[in-house]
Amino acid sequence: MRNLKKLTAVSLILVMMAAALSGCGSSKSTNKTNNNTGNDAQATQAADNSGNSDGVTPATSYKMFMRSQYADWIKELKWYDVAEEKTGIHVEYVEGPEEIADTYTEVDERIASGTLPDAAMVNLAQAKVYGEQGAFVDLAPYIKKYAPNLQAYIDKNPDYKSYVSSDNGAIYGLVKESPIFADLIGYRADQFKEAGIDPASVKTVDDFTAAMETLKKFYGAKDKNYYPLSGRDSALRFAAWFGAASYADANGSGGVYYNHEKDGSFNIKADGAYTWIETMKKWYDEGLINPLWVAGTNSEGDWESQTLEGQASIFYDYYNRAEWFMQNVGADGNKNYDMQVLNFLQDASGKTIPVTSSILYQNGCVTAVNSARNESTIAAILKFIDYFYSEEGITLANWGVEGESFTTNDSTKMFIADYTTEESKAAGEKRWSFLSDRFTVCKPVDQTAFYSWNTKLIADAANSNFKTENFLDRPTLIYSTSQEEELTNLVASVFEGESAGLTAFITGSKELNKDNWNAFIKEMDNMGLSQIEKIQAEAYTNTFSK
């Protein structure tokens, strides 16, 4: 499977992205149509897959279990309504929990209780393990019958087939394509200016720390609840800045790489890992980072409020969050509010520090079909998904409807729907939106369209930072079903143990010294870290030696 290495080489995607972003002065960027797919397998024309002489007539609706937030987003999409009209199939979503981890847990519970609807959003390990136990349909023979466009995609992408297939060759779950991107450093330019900080001077980690110290002295004197750096979810997201991201390559594996190729990627055995935690402890002790974020109790809403209200000036988060803050400061908010994006940091030699990025095929948000359903329902599910692998469906999901959301001029696509206008609409209101990093339906991603659907702020930041040499190698590994099952169980406990231990060092509840650090590594190895690394290394070898 040497061709799978192509998934780690983002050069082609970045070339297309550069074409989309260069000279992007507004949301109306121009893009060549010969680059209008994220993977070159989408040359298949839309086909009539309403059934054939060997199959049954597909049903006209089905139910799918999904994370509630994703279902809410789908209800707002204008292009999704068009897809249902085009296919003649309506999807009724059974809403799960708000958090994605809780959603997967409920899948386990629903399988055990027999309450899983026709289809479900699962992770790949669940699809393979439960599939081999008989809970999910082997979709491979039905794809041949009812999904010619999807079948053409699989035939043209053997790496995809290898990734989704179980040891027995069955396909129990379908994986979507994902955009390739990394997190960006957002900062309040107005606060930097007021505190006398030149953003261009923030180049290294030491510069970053010095800027936070200046901000803390300036704003912290007025507000005891001011912390320069804040965020949501885990604060353990700076490991790559110290050369301590998890990895898998020809030399082996370090840290939890499985399901943490981008987020939560750290390797406590890396040479720079101790310095990483030592630096974060300094941030914590000096009040430079929000302690609630370090403790894991700072919600997304808390972080947003802190950043909008001036109690935080810097974040390291999703690529488009800077624009979100600019949109949500409000008409009556601070008129001087100005969120901008820093360039990636550099090492002492002036070389940009490479960071973790997303990968094309991820093991979350997988579509699986309940094996208790009849062929008519299976056909309906595949017919609906297959539409998005046709040229018509790819264009609809990535660009919308010509004349309404985009136009074509001299073989060039250009958005005419305004990003800011559409994305700032109230929750629940219908909109044009092409944020393909969100899960809507299993489909390919047009990387060019994805980056074109942005404001100048994000387009410029992506164009400046998202370069091949600035991304760490993130190979997509193929695991056997038994490896998937073992890793799922091990990672759940080991990653939690690592996170708790690292947090204890940062907060000072456990003294940070070399002896305690080495004991911590040994403890994690005994818990299963070394076994995780062994499986990841074996998967890398098996993936790229064939």
UniProtKB/TrEMBL annotation:
SUPFAM superfamilies: Periplasmic binding protein-like II (SSF53850). Keywords: Signal. Residues 40-54 have a biased composition (Polar residues). Residues 1-22 form the signal peptide. InterPro entries: Bact_solute-bd_prot1 (IPR050490). Residues 31-54 are annotated as: Disordered. This is Extracellular solute-binding protein. It comes from Anaerocolumna chitinilytica.
